Amino acid sequence: MRQKFARLVGGVAIAALAMGGVTACKSDSGTDEAAGDSCGAKIAFFGALTGPAAALGVNMNGGVKLAIDKYNKENADCQVTLVPLDSQGNPEQAPALAQQALDDAKILGIVGPAFSGESEAANPFFSEAGLVHISPSATRPSLADQGWKTFFRAVGNDYSQGPAAGRYIKDVLKAEKVYVVDDQSAYGAGLADEVKKVLGASVVGSEKVQGEGKQSDFSATVTKVKSSGATAIFYGGYYQEAGLIRKQLTAAGVTATLVAGDGVNDASYITGAGAAAAEGTILTCPCQPATEARGSFVEDFKALNGGEPGTYSDVAFDAANILLAGIKAGNTSRDKMLEFVKGYSGEGVAASYKFTETGELDPTQVKVWAYKVVGGQVVPDQEIPKS
Amino acid sequence: MDFNALFSDFGGYTITGLTVGAIYALVALGYTLVYGVLRLINFAHSEVFIAGAFAAIWGWAAFGLDRDSVVSGFGSIMLYLLVGALIAAVASAGTATVIERVAYRPLRKRNAPPLAFLITAIGASIAIAEAFGIYTRRLPVGAPTVVKNDVLFEVFGAEVTVVQLLVIGSALAMMVALDLFINRSRIGRGIRAVAQDQNTAALMGINKDRIILVVFIIGGAMAGVAGMLYDIRIGTLTYSVGFLLGLKAFTAAVLGGIGNLRGALLGGLLLGLVENYASALFGANWKDLVAFVVLVVLLMFRPTGLLGESLGRARA
Description:
The complex is a heterodimer of chains A (387) and B (316). Chain A has helices spanning 2-34, 54-74, 94-103, 116-129, 158-172, 186-199, 219-228, 239-251, 267-273, 275-278, 297-305, 313-328, 334-342; strands at residues 42-47, 81-86, 107-111, 132-135, 151-153, 178-182, 203-208, 232-236, 257-260, 282-285, 345-347, 352-354, 369-374, 377-383. By secondary structure, chain A is an alpha/beta fold.
């Protein structure tokens, strides 16, 4: 008897759920018609919020959050929500996440994808569906050559960062023997190739290691660098391996200066290497220091996120603001939003923004900065001269 | 192929290879001991190692050492090393005990099929690794410089540093001690008996469950010390490094002959050397490919590994 009762109750509960599902679907389809109204619009952040490269994504997400928070305070009657899409920096997860974004008709624009690898996997979906996305950090040059209609980036690409890193090694460090290491990723290898082109014959050796947390022992590489007598090392890759390599180089008595790209430009690099080993490391970035952003950005960021802004926090903030400006101007469909970004020209806290035909940031706006690790902190060193 | 890089620095690659191999060997012991007694691949052993590695860092932190501290003076170095090793060994042995109690013993009592053990092992491994990942916010954790990596002496033009000597020396010492323990002591005899035939051993008055627990504790303690040595050598720990290192150590155990203690040592050192030579010859991106091709070829000719399977068997 009791069992029967339980079944009955269960049956009723399932029926209720099914009914609820039907009504939920109905209200969902209703949002499609309502998409003409900007209220309830959404902006997504696409990047690593967990996983080995999470620290970079969290920085950017903080910038986007701040932009939306400010917008919502100024437009209390018409709120925009942030949808975090956590890719873990993994290209394999990117297509499914892209689909998730496309399925939500309220998402009018995306800040991201943050990394080059995941961009290659996700961007074709966005291009086909016409959903605009502005990456604050994917710097692989070939991304702009894929014919994607919806691709924009608010930073310079590796072609601007790589040669600048090379020029810094040649002109500022005046190193005659340079060892180049990369992690075989689209980003790291691309950057290393650009550096090699600038340095030419002063590259005394090069090595490819395994990235994505797959290698933690670099003793063979360390031995090679040591016997090459290099006075500068360029590493193309991300902070986790860079920290390990720097620590193991120093432990083996190699004092050569490590120069690396923006993928290493993060406080976690110093945590990994230890402040003593990390001291003096040069990090390039096609971005000006987040802490030098204009206006009250730094204080506002700290107030909302409870920590200093990091690499690309300011650019992500600007990218989100471009999208928000579009919503504010009444561009409440994905097509109109795309047109708005194409024609956009304006000032942000990090730089001025205007995009080329292929979605690149206008070359005259790109600034490449060198940063230096001093006393356990990444501090701005100098803007690298254009040539 | 870069023969020049390999031969101009052959001694250097040999020593760093042996250092890597010594850590593989210590972790491989856990796989081999458990396999020898239970015919079970304890895939969660990689997380037993990680537990020890984190415990050592947090233990040192409790004594006021952070990632930027440098310990000096022979006395305090030895003290911190002993403290670190002890904390790591206890933490790892504890983790291994919990895994055995929670994931394996209940299954054994119910005569579960081998596949069930495999799945609980992988499940325990992922659960523990993720727990560490969440707790450390998936960020790398820096270890203090307990032992400064000064060059101690030179052999054949290759510099040998304190850390390298420490890692290889302590691995060898522990290996010899364990070998003696298994072959000479009363508990060791029990382990060998259970490895040969659990039921007969039980009939002879050996407490099977206690022997199995002892095996997990010994394997765990070894992995814990390996974890501390890893901290000292690599200097930075991320929650996810256990998986690949565990896989390598398991490979080393198979290479030497799983179930065979001396095989684990031989397999570990050999794998470390092959990896390092391959890195020198072909570049670091080739090292896993070469190492595993060597494994496959060796197993073709010696299917039971270099020294063959035996914990109790061969000498019984």
